[in-house]
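Re: the pair you flagged

First of the two:
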Amino acid sequence: RQAHQLKGMAANVSAFGMLKTLAELESAAAEEDWDEIEELVRTIERQNGSFQSTIDQWLPARSAPDPTGRG
């Protein structure tokens, strides 16, 4: 169930590599393939780190609106 929810979130932010891995995790969980699950979780952790780094690099580059409305 959690893999399915994460898969939906990955699709929403166009994280297609992670989306594919999460679909594989969902299948492995349904089959109770614990060795595959462990490997896929490690892969997802790496993909998430890469995704987070990309977001962190992108966000500071955007101009935040002036909360006072003056500039």
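Second of the two:
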Amino acid sequence: KSRKQIACQLAQKGVSRENIEEALECCQEEEEQQVMYWLRKKGYKQGREDDREYEKTAAFLYRKGFSGEI
């Protein structure tokens, strides 16, 4: 799950925003690994010139809850 999804679930369970942010600070590297996993699973190859494919892949990751920063 993405950091965004985890944060939403924790907030729904009543965890304070401060505690959520503190807990998720260390998870950046793990999130990057998850993005790489989804990219490999979808068959995305870096360096393709096809903008449409890039946009589709970016939209897929966004729907999974990943930010555009990664």
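The longest helix spans residues 28-42.

-B.
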